[in-house]
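Example for tutorial group B:
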């Protein structure tokens, strides 16, 4: 179930959303590293995390699913946002160097198809930074925030999904140990919750943040699936003739 873009924008404009942006962004940008001269795509609702990226990258795009809706981004200058089908994005193969997925995997009908499409548009050695609700966390159980909608994941489920779609998880972080309650006390103590949860490796973090690298081999099934969706034929090499055959 996808959250409407109006609700997403309202959440991030509030105090709990600001705390979320700060805590999640700290891990996300640590994994993302330097993007100088790179092409970066934010998919889902990644615009709260794209500000620092936009000023350093060669190009930054914000794609938002049609089921969610789209907002103009950035607020000034030429728009870099678009409404797309996340399993058939309007980009050629190997078009971007980094992809940030936020409010995406948990909201689509076929997470595997989405990740296969991300694999297609990433350059060889390209990296994916993925933010996903934790199945064991409090945030996935409370629908007052965007992370309480859709399908949450355990760490093992997420790792298996990425391996099946040709991504190798390189680093993991857990974040949002603060309860998803917009009160003065929780907002003021959010950093303390984060330090304690991270330090003790507690299991009830709200989100997984994963850094994964694109594997370089590509199965025929990925090509065939996209060709079938586009209605184009897949060319399969003919078997070599058998010597002496009729």
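The residue assignment follows.
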């Amino acid at each position: 179930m996808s959250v409407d873009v109006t609700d997403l924008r309202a959440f991030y404009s509030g105090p709990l959303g600001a705390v979320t942006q700060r805590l999640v962004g700290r891990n996300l940008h640590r994994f993302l590293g330097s993007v100088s001269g790179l092409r970066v795509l934010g998919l889902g609702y990644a615009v709260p995390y794209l500000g620092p990226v936009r000023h350093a990258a060669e190009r930054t795009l914000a794609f938002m699913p049609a089921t969610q809706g789209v907002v103009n981004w950035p607020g000034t200058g030429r728009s870099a946002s678009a409404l797309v089908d996340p399993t058939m994005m309007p980009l050629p193969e190997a078009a971007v160097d980094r992809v940030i997925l936020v409010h995406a995997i948990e909201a689509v009908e076929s997470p595997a198809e989405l990740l296969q499409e991300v694999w297609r548009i990433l350059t060889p050695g390209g990296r994916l930074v993925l933010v996903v609700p934790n199945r064991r966390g409090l945030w996935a159980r409370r629908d007052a925030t965007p992370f309480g909608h859709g399908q949450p994941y355990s760490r093992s489920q997420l790792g298996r999904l990425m391996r099946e779609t040709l991504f190798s998880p390189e680093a993991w972080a857990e974040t949002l140990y603060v309860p998803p309650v917009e009160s003065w006390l929780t907002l003021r103590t959010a950093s303390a919750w984060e330090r304690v949860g991270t330090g003790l490796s507690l299991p009830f973090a709200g989100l997984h943040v994963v850094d994964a690298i694109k594997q370089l081999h590509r199965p025929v099934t990925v090509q065939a699936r996209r060709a079938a969706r586009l209605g184009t034929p897949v060319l399969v090499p003919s078997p070599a003739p058998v010597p002496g055959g009729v």
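Strands lie at 39-44, 59-65, 81-84, 96-102, 122-133, 167-175, 207-214. Compare this with the pattern of hydrophobic and polar residues in the output above.
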